[in-house]
Write a structure and sequence with these properties.
Layout (H helix, E strand, L loop, with lengths): L1 H27 L5 H6 L5 H10 L6 H13 L13 H36 L4 H15 L2 H15 L15 H35 L2 H8 L4 H39 L4 H10 L3 H4 L1
Helix pairs in contact: 5-6, 5-8, 5-10, 5-11, 6-8, 7-8, 7-10, 8-10, 10-11
Length: 283
């Protein structure tokens, strides 16, 4: 058991190391010189070179990488090339926005996926099951940003029930904070809930074929009763595994959704840093 845990931990650390190398190489390969971008195209070459030396950009890439890597181990993620502000202080306010969006999207995705997947499995030979499967397929085909635009058009532009964009901090006004997050969260949940519902359907169909479900039916349980009381726990194992894998997809989707709804999350910080070639924040 200890050997398996050690192997998993080693594989995880190796994956993180490879990911850090790829991130550093890709960001360093972006066209243009950081110092030139900061000072402008007409800047004095001596000033550009002095800025490169101040930020250590004149050192070999392996040296820059090791300095960046060891800095992360001691909690030093570097400073913005543009403002001099620490990376941690720059991204800390944005983390809460993105986490609210991702966790809310995951919650609503699960609340959508479980009943839809159960109906699609139990009623798969009926019109209601076919409709549930069709709705999940439609959700799979809709990009998150398109779902967001449609929700804005319906609930913000036409009905005027919810704000179309912007963000209010929870501490300032919890009610307005929740209203500003409804549409972004639903945009993520529609797509991810459709994905999860397919896995829920498959897991439920597999559970319905087990002997103990047939035994429960034989002693008088209804199909729904036996499934809810005994089957969901067994079916949830594979669904939880998929949900963990979908978490990364939710973070990627959040970057797009933050742009659609003008949310000051990690996606907005990332896009701004890429546009300004503030590579330390990007990394």
């Amino acid at each position: 058991m200890a050997l398996r845990i050690a192997t998993r931990v080693a594989a995880f650390l190796g994956s993180v190391l490879v990911a850090s190398i790829l991130i550093f190489i890709v960001t360093s390969a972006l066209p243009g010189d950081v110092a030139q971008v900061i000072l402008g195209t007409n800047a004095d070459p001596a000033a550009v070179e002095a800025l490169r030396q101040r930020h250590g950009l004149d050192r070999p890439l392996p040296v820059q990488y090791l300095d960046w890597l060891f800095g992360m181990f001691v909690g030093d993620f570097g400073h913005s090339y543009l403002t001099g502000q620490s990376v941690i202080s720059r991204i800390s306010p944005a983390i809460g926005v993105t986490l609210s969006l991702v966790l809310g999207g995951m919650l609503f995705a699960v609340l959508f996926a479980i009943p839809m997947g159960m109906i699609a499995a139990i009623r798969r030979r009926h019109a209601s099951g076919a409709l549930a499967s069709a709705l999940s397929q439609i959700g799979l085909a809709i990009p998150a940003f398109w779902a967001g635009l449609m929700l804005v058009y319906l609930f913000a532009v036409n009905l005027g029930w919810l704000p179309a964009n912007g963000y209010i901090r929870f501490g300032n006004d919890p009610g307005r904070w929740a209203r500003h997050l409804v549409l972004p969260v639903l945009s993520l949940a529609i797509v991810q809930g459709s994905v999860l519902s397919r896995y829920v359907r498959s897991a439920i169909i597999e559970v319905l074929g087990e002997d103990w479900i047939r035994t429960a039916r034989a002693i008088g349980w209804t199909k729904w009763g036996a499934l809810i009381r005994h089957g969901l726990r067994n079916a949830s194992l594979s669904v939880v595994t998929v949900l963990g894998l979908q978490l990364a997809t939710l973070f990627v989707g959040a970057i797009v959704i933050e742009s659609v709804f003008a949310l000051p999350g990690l996606g907005s910080v990332l896009l701004a840093a890429v546009a300004q070639r503030d590579l330390m924040i990007v990394q």
